[in-house]
Design goal:
The protein is an all-alpha fold. The chain is built from 10 helices and 2 strands, in the order H-H-H-H-H-H-H-H-H-H-E-E. The chain has a two-stranded antiparallel sheet. The longest helix has 25 residues. It has a domain of 177 residues. The protein is 57% helix and 2% strand. A hairpin with a 2-residue loop joins strand 1 and strand 2.
Length: 255
């Protein structure tokens, strides 16, 4: 839409030279998040696991029904598990991560039941056993909690930028506040991270026994990589990029 050759913006600019072209702020946020993940690859394992969960339940009514039964037995409200960091807004990714966090006991129970189900093929049972082994580790819970805390901040920012009443000064203020809150997660853990720390100490999360995982705690591109590290290039989260003097707002995060 904002290309330089034959886009809608270029055609409008030809007809109205004084028009100010503006890229959707929320779209800029999504592009910034996507570029960050591509540049760091620190969340690849967690993303792959969540994508596996989405495929497992979206493509099999049987698996979804069994998971629903497990949630019912545990008195949990089942939430839909979707994809993360796709074409949808970042708020959708937060809902997917929150669903896994909320349904953790039901997922663990279903994986355990399915891994021992004699009606399933050996490859299926091995797959569920592998998922159970990854799920019930302290590293997975900590990674999931950190992602939930960061996505919660980005979700709030995204929803504010979608509001029609949001002005440029307000957008600048909420952007600055969001970055400061994300930076503060390095020394002041968020709500989910605090619960994950307690789970690690007790080796139990939502009454599910945990074990030490071989996967190290992820280096979250939005949190851990904010600390100065010489082998990383400066990451710039640029959401507001106007071309007029009165609207020059650029937000940078260096790590």
């Amino acid at each position: 839409m904002l290309g330089t050759k034959s886009s809608v913006g270029k055609l409008l600019k030809d007809e109205f030279p004084d028009i100010v072209l503006w890229h959707c702020l929320n779209h800029r946020l999504e592009l910034a998040v996507g570029n960050t993940l591509d540049a760091t690859s620190g969340t690849n394992n967690l993303q792959s696991f969540l994508e596996c969960l989405y495929s497992l339940y979206s493509q099999s009514p049987k698996n979804m029904r069994e998971l629903s039964n497990c949630a019912h037995d545990l008195h949990l409200t089942l939430k839909g598990i979707g994809k993360v960091f796709t074409v949808r807004w970042v708020a959708s990714s937060f809902r997917s991560v929150s669903a896994v966090w909320h349904c953790f006991p039901a997922l663990a129970q279903h994986f355990q039941n399915a891994s021992k189900d004699e009606t399933r093929q050996s490859t299926e049972k091995a797959r569920f056993q592998g998922l159970l082994s990854k799920l019930c580790t302290t590293s997975f819970v900590k990674n999931l909690s950190l992602m939930a805390d960061v996505l919660n901040e980005l979700k709030n920012l995204s929803e504010t930028l979608q509001n029609r009443s949001t002005t440029l000064p307000k957008a600048q203020n909420v952007l600055t506040a969001c970055v400061r809150r994300i930076e503060s997660l390095v020394v002041s853990p968020g709500e989910h991270s605090i619960l994950a720390q307690r789970a690690e100490e007790a080796m139990s999360f939502q009454e599910v026994q945990l074990r030490e995982g071989r996967c190290r705690h992820l280096s979250n591109p939005f949190v851990n990589l904010l600390a100065p590290q010489p082998h990383f290039q400066a990451f710039r989260l640029v959401i507001l990029s106007p071309k007029t003097e009165e609207c020059k707002l650029r937000l940078k995060i260096n790590f």
